[in-house]
Design a protein that fits this description.
The protein is of the alpha/beta class. It is built from 16 helices and ten strands. The N and C termini lie far apart (about 50 Å). One of its GO terms (molecular function) is acid phosphatase activity.
Amino acid sequence: MDILASLLLLVHLIPVSAARNGASSKSRKRIMPDPVTEPPVTDPVYEALLYCNIPSVAERSMEGHAPHHFKLVSVQVLIRHGDRYPLYAIPKTKRPEIDCTLVANRKPYHPKLEGFVSHMSKGSGSSFESPLNSMPLYPNHALCEMGELTQTGIVQHLQNGQLLRDIYLKKHKLLPSDWSADQLYLETTGRSRTLQSGLALLYGFLPDFDWKKIYFRHQPSVLFCSGNCYCPVRNQYLEKEQRRQYLLRLKNSQLEQTYGEMARIVDIPTKQLRASNPIDSMLCHFCHNVSFPCTRSGCFDMEHFKVIKMHQIEDEKERREKRLYLGYSLLGAHPILNQTIDRMQRAAEGRRDELFALYSAHDVTLSPVLSALGLSEARFPRFAARLIFELWQDRDKPSEHAVRILYNGVDVTFHTSFCQDHHKRSSKPMCPLENLVRFVKRDMFVALDSSSTNYYDACHREGV
């Protein structure tokens, strides 16, 4: 069965309108298991399709929802870059022919696509923090370069930006009509795909995309840890997690057989094929409906794809159970979560700068943050995934503030570690800001089963 046939079969087997449109609270796209929208057993093709995040109808979301007596104060958005070309090439195969120019009459399309290209092609007229100022502002190669953002990736974030604009600007008036540069905080890693994703989201979001007000800071670390990146204990957890991954792979005889078959097709050692991370390239073929690679000895096929994708799913499940990744995540995510609550506290005190913050990042940025927050059932970050932190003020009690956490439009606040028991202890309809502050300042270290009370000590303790 070719990829297109599989996708069509999937459309008939799974209620796509429920999975993608979110028509009701039961059918809304969820990160938690939902029997209404998901197959009865784990389906690697279904999971891969969700990962692709192919733009279709505009999704509904739960961003910006709160009791009427709450006022939106600030919003912080952490995104994964959009759809990209593979980072790895499968040896002895032809690269997938994906066009990375932006063309209005090619799907997927967004009404702001032409405006985005026109705006970006003129150049920013202002400098970003080095080395970002030397990067292209939009993808523009007839044959994509490795890791390059695609038109799909741009449209995904134009769509994200439009959705957030309708909610946060049109409905809640988060930014004043005469908004200034200091009311935005923008940060990205030094990859063109993250910079371009951030620009696309902003172009969809802002009513007046004025280059004079757009300044991206450069973040050298994918963990967005700024000056707090040295953490030996975090690295020890990561080494143990990588060892766990290796041992799980060794136990999977079907996976090893599949890699062996694929290696014979391309006539290279199995070890070399595995090192080329073939699933990264195969996902590109799958998401763009391009046939899998072939040689004179045969073709990679959907069964190969399913086995490797299913192993990834099983790996994520064991990762949650073993909790080594949780230790890595708590220390890996602490710096960016600390920045998040610092910005919230300043906003709660009445500061009007950095009302909207955008971090344009990677799957390896979002994944530890989701884990650290206790969102263990959250799916691995899809292309153009978004994790949003909202800060709200109670108009009836202006000194009280509340937070909401949303992942891909789903309110997951009461699934987090810091607020999952809130309803048992309080009648307040929103999660108090102090819950999140207490979690980041204290409870994250308690969760590490250590006596540490601060980030430095937790990173340097003995005997992990």
